[in-house]
Predict the structure of Bacteriophage abortive infection AbiH.
Amino acid sequence: MVFVFFVTSKVNFELKTNHSFFYCLGRYCFKNTFFSKICDTRAIINWVDIENEYYKLLKECLKKRENTQVKKLNEEFEDVKKLLEQYLIEEVEEKYILSVSDNVSDIFKKKNYDHKEAERFLKELQSVDSKIYEAKIQNPLLTGTAFKIDTIKFLNFNYTSLLSTSILNLEKNIFKEIQIHGKLNDPNNKVNFGFGDEMDDDYGAIEKKDDNEYLKNIKSFAYLNTSNYKKTIDFLELDKFQVYIMGHSCGLSDRILLNKIFEHKNCCSIKIYYHKNGDNDNYTDIAQNISRHFNKKEMMRERIVNKTLCEPLPQTQLPLK
């Protein structure tokens, strides 16, 4: 049995705490129309919302006969990407000690299960194959040995070194990371910030435009610059796996990759670690987002772990350096 973890924390707090800026937009003269647009859009909460806004504007460019508008959009989007990288380097990497809290690390360091823990684990694996269950779980428990996870793979959507630092001292033959969307200051794994929903109804029209300018910020092509996507697919083929969602919104901008994982024949179930704030939480929001990545809705209902077996994601307060 193997695990896949989605781990990301795209510093959403900064987007949420800068609302005072939005009330003063009239004082500024924007040279970048795209930046002005996302600043003026109150629905921009997460980084995925910026990617979605880009795709929305990209589709509007299809209506134009010339490609001057899409070129301008891509140039402005590139400027915003550079600002994002600059922000993450100067305001996150250089200011904070990047390591998750013990409460979070205890979740993904878990690789051995006693009888009681394994029973709960089985309930999460709603669509597990009976032969896999017998060989990997039931037999070890009957013989008195602990059920053990073979490999824990972190599919990391974060651009920072937060996860790399957090798993640095763990067993490297068990705990492995793929920083799928790139890493800050790494020319061999550049930041991949764009849109990745090739299943969208309008994507075919973009391809038929026969102009590569329209495909410039589609994530699939950036995946081809590294071996990360291939490593991810190879991992999925190894054995049955469970997906842990930790901090990922599961928005449409990653749909082509998430669909591949969620509907894969080896995926047993998808467990959501949700954010809780008082009496409110976002379990249902994430479950609804996940549903959009499924073409087979019955499979979706079988694979998403119900809320009674899920739990809130402990929050990490990063200390300043």
DSSP finds 15 helices and ten strands in the chain. The chain has a mean pLDDT of 85. The CA atoms of residues 110 and 149 lie 8 Å apart.
